């Protein structure tokens, strides 16, 4: 809002406003130049922000690319430890087949030793059996029901396990195949 017009007397003493304006250095920029300076500073700041944005975007892309490479390597080499544990089991089976003139007891002892090697490989790689006993509660996350049968066990429990299941690091690799009790026959 403009200031009210006053009659100016050239002989009158200068007002406080005019004294303040006169006390400022003469090198001060004009209002148009102040805007140009502010615009130039703002454009430099925008350029800096744009550069920071581009750098942050490039860093995010690098992190994403490295993460994809890590996932790819994990998939590719994730089974390496497990495969290394199975090599001795295969070697034992091949050695057993290469032996001639073995007795049934020798075969049995060899198969038992190979099974122990396989169990060790499973344990080392966090692979566990799912082998529910008759009477255990049916868990649809770990068991696959083949049928319902009458049995002496309560309804909703395992009547019989047909095939073991397996977990690997608490994830179901294969559910156990079971028959579920429908309760006692009437």
Summarize the structure.
The protein is of the alpha+beta class. Helices cover 51% and strands 17% of the residues.
Question: How does the SSE layout of this entry go?
Answer:
Elements: H1 16-23, H2 31-77, H3 80-98, H4 104-124, E1 127-130, E2 143-149, E3 158-163, E4 165-168, E5 171-174, E6 176-181
Parallel strand pairs: 2-6
Antiparallel strand pairs: 1-4, 3-6, 4-5
Query: Which structural category do the helix and sheet elements fall into?
Result: alpha+beta
Distance between the termini: 100 Å
CATH architecture of the domain at 126-186: Roll
| The CATH topology of the domain at 126-186 | Nucleotide Exchange Factor Grpe, Chain A, domain 2
The CATH top-level class label of the domain at 126-186:
Mainly Beta
Characterize the largest beta sheet: strand count, sense, and whether it forms a barrel. 3 strands, antiparallel
- How many strands in all? 6
From the spread of the alpha carbons, the general shape counts as: elongated
Please give the count of helices: 4
Mean pLDDT: 84
Which value, in Å, is the CA radius of gyration? 42 Å
Strand order of the largest sheet: 1-4-5
Q: Which range does the strand content fall in?
A: 15-25%
Task: Characterize the structure shown.
By secondary structure, the protein is α+β, with helices and mostly antiparallel strands. It has a domain at 126-186: Nucleotide Exchange Factor Grpe, Chain A, domain 2, CATH 2.30.22. 51% of the residues lie in helices and 17% in strands. It is built from four helices and six strands, in the order ααααββββββ. The chain has helices at 16-23, 31-77, 80-98, 104-124, and strands at residues 127-130, 143-149, 158-163, 165-168, 171-174, 176-181. The longest helix has 47 residues, at 31-77.
